[in-house]
Sequence to fold (319 residues):
Amino acid sequence: MASSPSSSLTIRDFRPEDAEAVATAHRAGREHLVLSAETLVWLNAQPSPEEHFRTFVAELDGRVVGAVRCGVVLGTTTTGVGYANGSVLPGFRRRGAATALLAAAERHLTGHGVTEVHTWLDDEPASLAFGAAQDYRLGRTMQFAGRDLTLPLPPAPVLPAGVELRPAADWAADPHPVFLVESDAILDEPGSEVPMDAYKYEDWLRNDWTRPDRDLALSVVAVVDGRPAAFSMVQTDGVDRYWSAFTACRREFRGRGLTKSAKLESLRLAAAAGYRHAYTSNDTTNGPMLAINAWLGYERCAGERKGIKQLKRPSAHLL
Fold:
């Protein structure tokens, strides 16, 4: 779309009434992404004294055409790392909105001590070229995969003795045992540039467990002798789209097929509940999970590249 001489671009803070437009921009051309307007409102209403989470919105001639979500990376002893992830509606690209949004996010993060910012770029030429133009170097590769939940699922393998599958909702009153699975599994998550070696239970409760799109009835925990050992956590749009937020296993329980069984049971429950489109993502070096997803019937549908940029502290008048 050609730029009009009278076009007026404004970058401002997110308002709750922007949620539908921002969600639409986030998903445009990316059917594999599942993010609801309700979740966007919730994310921006959460207190984040350490994360300094903020969403900037781009308005072009009074219309919201994109946004960027940014903050300080939590859960690590590595200091000075932030993230900035955004998108612009395809019909309004190349008009300065993405550049202005990213610049606003970088200024915000620099003001909170961030010296290295990470972003995700669609693994296609225009997006990668944009990242390069903004001085982002390319890092690891992620693969998205989708599955039609109206198609038959593979038969469930026999569970090992002492193993049972239970909905995560069973831990609603005290989810700490589930947190212990995640905090152990992320210590060696494939491809991670930043070690997640200081994950706090309170941050996990606030940012993950209590998300409005987290479906605890469809999330499945594999329990070994009464102790959570693995899980497949789920987010949904509440209509027909299902997202595998994280599938993990404590290191001492790996090699027993627990994550495969948990994820299969979660998909079975989702199909029975009327969900029709399932999506997941993995680092392209994560051979075990890629093999599980292929067995489950997922097929690659898109990719992303991590972009990494070193930031310089600006002059005082810019903070």
